Amino acid sequence: MANNTVPTKVKERVNWPITILLMIGTLTVLFPLYMAVVIAFKDPSEMTNDIAGILSLPATWSLDNFIEAIQVTDFFHSFLNSLIITVVAVVVSILIHSLAAYAIGRNMDKKKLFKGSYYFIVAGMYVPFAILMMPLVKQTAMMHLDNMVGVMILYVVFYMPMNMMLYTGYLRNIPTALEEAARVDGASTWTTYWKVIFPLMKPMHATVAVITGLAVWNDVMTPLVIMGGSGVNTLPLAQMNFQTAFATNYNLAFASYLLAMLPMIIFYIVAQKQIIGGVTNGAVK
Amino acid sequence: MANLATSKAGSDRNRTFLMILIPVLVLFVAFNTIPLLTGFFYSFTNSKGYGPFEIIGLQNYIDLFQDARVGNSYLFTFKLAVVSTILVNVLSLILAIGLSSKIKFKSALRGLYFVPRILGALVVGYVFTYFFTYIVPAVTGTDSILASADWAWIGIVVVLVWQACAQTTIIYITGLSSVPEDVYEAGSLDGATGWNKFRYLTFPLIMPSITTNMVLVMKDMLMVFDQIVAMTGGGPANSTESISYLIYENGLNNSQFGFQCANAVLFFILIAVVSIAQTKFLNSKEEQL
Asked: CA nearest A24 in B: which residue?
């Protein structure tokens, strides 16, 4: 089959019709973003009721809407809160979930307690937030966790089932010989984990970071029910409050939407490969 | 002596594992199992979410099946989930086949089509609300579909599909890339082209991706919440009230705590049944290969 060169040559030719169709298709992705950009930069007086008035390029590219949106939505505070919640949730998830998966994964074939724990935790994937939400509102209030700390704890618990499955699956491919060698050298199980196993799971840490990070950063429901109305906002919560209060100034609203999307877009431009890889790994495994 | 040392090391190892497992289990039980059981308990009460309440047995469950608003939310959520899941998978598969062929700017195009996945559903919902309220009516001269009880759900489908296609496409691309080249070469020798090549060669080989995507998308769609908050708030006339939204709205804001807990229990069972059924289906399909 190797000397059959004809199909190989056919394959090398660029398929221009498909390329062009796909390029036209990207308009479906780009158009809403284009709309957001032009409206965000426009002065309200430029907005007429016809399409041209809405979609034409702004007369001057003014940052006024953005400056006002930053003040009205208290952008930097919400941004900082979202960042703290996301970073803490991701880092703690990586540390705790991988460690728990190590304890469970290395024992579940021999010990019922660990095997049972595995299925007990992974079954949590089938529990929708809707059923936990109402009791959790009461419970977190009672425990004085109706704040950012509570939200971070909840994320660590909510993403445990998924991450547990990912990490235990990955651990199966790491031979126990490495740990045994470390043990013979006198290292404790604890030290062996952090020195030998944890670094080996780096690809899975990246996957977990991407999936957990994206989900936490964009989540609305958890902060809404746990700390909604407390005056402390995440980025999506700030958008929601803004929407109820100032929905009629669309130029201001779109500036605010763009600001909310911007951190993730910048992050995506920087780490596109890792993000796509992480999302794919997490879904396929 | 040697034996003693090994067993000592072994028990140290076991102690470490237990000391890891126990706190993690406690954390999980405290913030997942206990609220789940509490919710289950409240589903048998007439609690408003505050003040005293009584245990009323199965009354909430009986009422659930007679409540028109609850019934509507299930019909709406399923209609939305089934239509979106099919659309997402068909469109994503087409897109993935396109993005897997010999095209120019391949990585740039793949990168662009993935963008919707990283954006927050709430803000995307706001942007599309504007699109449906001002842009579409200006072109067609009709009223906004979001203001129509009959058509508002279409607007939500559009947003759901727009966002969900990104991840689904990438999973299909991965699936397609795992189809070995020589399968196609052997197939083309047998004269398989175009639709036949897809139907008899590609399709069976990417079955695992198809079922993965079906399960993932369906589960996400059944839990739809953000888009409803952003676009319709359940309206007009409660026509776009998803199950999650109804539980949130009436359970937390309108004093139906006990009743919506029962609704949530029903919803939980449903999600579990759908997911397990789909996973079973997935496994049986994979065994065939």
From this structure: B109
